């Protein structure tokens, strides 16, 4: 402990360093072992260069550079007389072209432009221990002296732990002088690093400053690549380095102890900087470790990352436990990226995921890559666009669990939520057309999926529940006949289409705020208007308010399935204005006395949800709720009178009867859709 300074200021004191090196004696490497630094030294130091090492200490770096023939014309300086004597004795008679001088780097005696390379290993970090005025003045004097003794085209190589204030100061100073600044991350070749934080090398190349030019060239190289990536500002460069430091801390932490909570991180594309993989690290304490079940990687097939099993923390924990591995890393693939099959992903990730290995993983252990169905799935982006109201969105076709394909609408501001979904019909061969024989030698995971929409299939469970809720209409022994239905929120149009097609006497009005959604529904989801289907492009709040004033009591059923764009509120469906009491009273006004109002409620804020339910109970005396299993969604069935109160058994019987009436001869019906099942878990609030 006596080797540590009493205060950070002592790092700049010659007497402290004299005492340190007399007591230490043996060579001391703060960080950055020679084998780890070799790739950068070979890249930026030429054998004939004149090299200056500032703050050399008793590091073996200069000696190793000399002895390996990397460079011999090396001058080392330090403010500690004790260490300069030690180093001269170590190299006496064996390294004639290398010298050690007692000199302060803030006041150097060398002529201008004397060196091609200035090398600094930890000296800037030791000097810039705080951001006090006196410290910053010393640092600027150091930079000015380095700049003076370097030739134009020369390189200042600084080995550093890249604390934010240190990196920012160096980058700002030299970039403003017109220098090119490049930052490399050093990969440790040893099994154990002395420091948890990674080591970086700043490479500042001197150029003549062009008067009036504010252009900056700032670059960063990741540990896996040589090709630099340009960044536009000092803050972005500092942020990129900080991301790498956080990742190193994370890897260090989870390599020593199991994860109590799920850990998630993004791995970004080298070229674009956009996320390429999203990883979740899940530990299963219940799994008893053996040699073969410590660790596995699970590749989520494209398009299935929104499913409960893969898209929620609870689902991923269940997946990890059922897979039988102590630690499972799930990997989600991003729609903006291209992938070369499972083998390509494995080659790309194999080195990186090993940094996330659990404690106790046996040496040379083979880590399996798993997937559902054995491949990476199929995703075909059909349409990309944006609108002022909905932001960026995509329409994509994905392969589900099995042979079915689905078309989805995704709003990219909430990319893990499927806004609308429809099943695609398998193509029907023409008469006399033979099925194409599969080529056993070639698989085509990116084969074109079919394009026609299966209008008989409701993908969303909350849509199924809403349709089943129509059995609340009608008398004790009758089912709904002619219906006037209002749907607020179009999306892909699956819900109003189903009501239109299966309730032959229904007249459906749809209100949609965003005209882009009407275009998407029509072009990509088979939606169309007609005598019994009309879309009103306007604000649902205004539409309901106008009807309440002009034409009350005209709808048998009103369905709200409208999302909120405000992600700061703990309720993503509907927007809060749709569940305020004055507006709900207007909804009640346009509903027929025995009608039903259905609301898709998605609320993670418990207190807010209780408030919404209390408001609904104030307006609608009869309130049923149906929770959608595995999702946050709850469907609320609201009625103005209590006379129509029905038990769960009665609801099930009415739903079964309604289904029988809807199953018309010659009309497709999805066999997995049982209306009675949708109402089994309904209860009255």
From TrEMBL:
Entry keyword Transferase: yes
One Gene Ontology MF term: methyltransferase activity
Pfam family, one: Spermine_synth
InterPro entries: Lys/N-term_MeTrsfase_sf, Methyltransf_11, SAM-dependent_MTases_sf
Methyltransferase type domain segment(s): 52-157
Residue spans of biased composition, Basic residues class: 433-443
Coiled-coil boundaries: none
Disordered: annotated segments: 428-450
GO BP term (any one): methylation
Alphabetical keyword list: Methyltransferase, Multifunctional enzyme, Transferase
GO cellular component, as recorded: cytoplasm
NCBIfam families linked to this entry: MFS_SpdSyn (NF037959)
Family in the record: Belongs to the methyltransferase superfamily.
Name of protein: eEF1A lysine and N-terminal methyltransferase
């Amino acid at each position: 402990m006596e080797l540590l300074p009493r205060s950070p200021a002592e790092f700049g004191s010659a007497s402290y360093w004299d005492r340190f090196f007399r007591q230490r004696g043996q060579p001391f490497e703060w960080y950055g072992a020679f084998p780890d630094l070799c790739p950068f030294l070979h890249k930026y130091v030429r054998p004939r260069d004149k090299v200056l090492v500032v703050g050399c200490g008793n590091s073996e770096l200069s000696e190793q550079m000399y002895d390996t023939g990397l460079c011999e014309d090396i001058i080392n300086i330090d403010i500690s007389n004790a260490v300069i004597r030690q180093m001269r004795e170590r190299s006496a008679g064996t390294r004639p072209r290398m010298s050690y001088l007692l000199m302060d780097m803030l006041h150097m005696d060398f002529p201008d432009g004397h060196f091609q390379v200035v090398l600094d290993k930890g000296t800037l970090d030791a000097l810039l221990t705080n951001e006090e005025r006196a410290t910053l003045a010393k640092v600027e004097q150091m930079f000015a002296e380095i700049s003076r003794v370097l030739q134009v085209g020369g390189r200042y190589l600084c080995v550093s732990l890249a604390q934010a204030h240190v990196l920012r100061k160096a980058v700002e100073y030299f970039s403003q002088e017109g220098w090119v600044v490049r930052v490399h991350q050093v990969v440790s070749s040893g099994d154990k690093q002395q420091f948890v934080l990674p080591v970086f090398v700043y490479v500042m190349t001197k150029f003549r400053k062009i008067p009036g030019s504010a252009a900056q060239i700032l670059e960063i190289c990741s540990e896996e690549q040589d090709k630099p990536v340009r960044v536009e500002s000092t803050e972005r460069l500092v942020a990129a380095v900080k991301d790498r430091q956080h990742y190193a801390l994370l890897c260090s932490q989870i390599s020593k102890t199991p994860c109590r909570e799920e850990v998630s991180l993004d791995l970004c594309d080298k070229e674009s900087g956009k996320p390429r993989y999203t990883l979740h690290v899940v530990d299963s304490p219940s799994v008893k470790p053996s040699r073969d079940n410590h660790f596995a990687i699970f590749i989520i097939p494209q398009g299935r990352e929104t499913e409960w099993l893969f898209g929620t923390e609870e689902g991923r924990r269940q997946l990890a436990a059922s897979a039988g591995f102590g630690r499972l890393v799930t990997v989600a693939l991003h729609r903006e990226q291209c992938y070369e099959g499972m083998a390509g992903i494995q080659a790309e990730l194999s080195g990186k995921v090993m940094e996330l290995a659990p404690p106790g993983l046996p040496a040379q252990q083979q880590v399996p890559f798993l997937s559902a169905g054995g491949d990476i799935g199929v995703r075909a982006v059909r349409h990309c666009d944006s609108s002022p109201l909905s932001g960026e969105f995509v329409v994509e076709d994905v392969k589900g669990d099995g042979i079915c394909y689905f078309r989805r609408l995704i709003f990219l501001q909430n990319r893990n939520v499927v806004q609308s979904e429809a099943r695609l019909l398998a193509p029907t061969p023409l008469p006399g057309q033979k099925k194409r024989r599969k080529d056993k030698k070639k698989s085509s995971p990116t084969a074109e999926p079919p394009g026609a929409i299966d209008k008989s299939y409701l993908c969303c469970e909350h849509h199924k529940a809403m349709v089943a809720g129509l059995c609340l209409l009608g008398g004790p022994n009758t089912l709904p006949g002619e219906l006037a239905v209002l749907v607020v929120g179009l999306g892909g149009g699956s819900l109003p289409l189903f009501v239109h097609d299966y309730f032959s006497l229904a007249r459906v009005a749809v209100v949609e705020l965003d005209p882009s959604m009407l275009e998407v529904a029509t072009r990509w989801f088979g939606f169309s208007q007609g005598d019994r289907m009309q879309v009103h492009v306007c604000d649902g709040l205004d539409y309901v308010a106008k009807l309440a004033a002009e034409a009350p009591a005209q709808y048998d059923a009103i369905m709200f399935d409208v999302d909120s764009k405000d992600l700061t509120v703990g309720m993503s469906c509907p927007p809060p204005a749709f569940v305020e009491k004055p507006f709900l009273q207007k909804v009640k006004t346009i509903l027929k006395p025995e009608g039903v109002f259905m609301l898709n409620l998605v609320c993670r804020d418990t207190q807010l949800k209780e408030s919404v339910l209390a408001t609904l109970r104030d307006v609608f005396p009869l309130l049923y709720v149906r929770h959608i299993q595995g999702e946050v969604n709850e469907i609320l069935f609201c009625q103005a009178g209590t006379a129509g109160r029905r038990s769960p058994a009665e609801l099930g019987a009415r739903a079964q009867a309604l289904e029988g009436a809807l199953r018309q001869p010659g009309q497709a019906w999805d066999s997995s859709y049982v209306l009675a099942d949708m109402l089994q878990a309904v209860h009255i609030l």
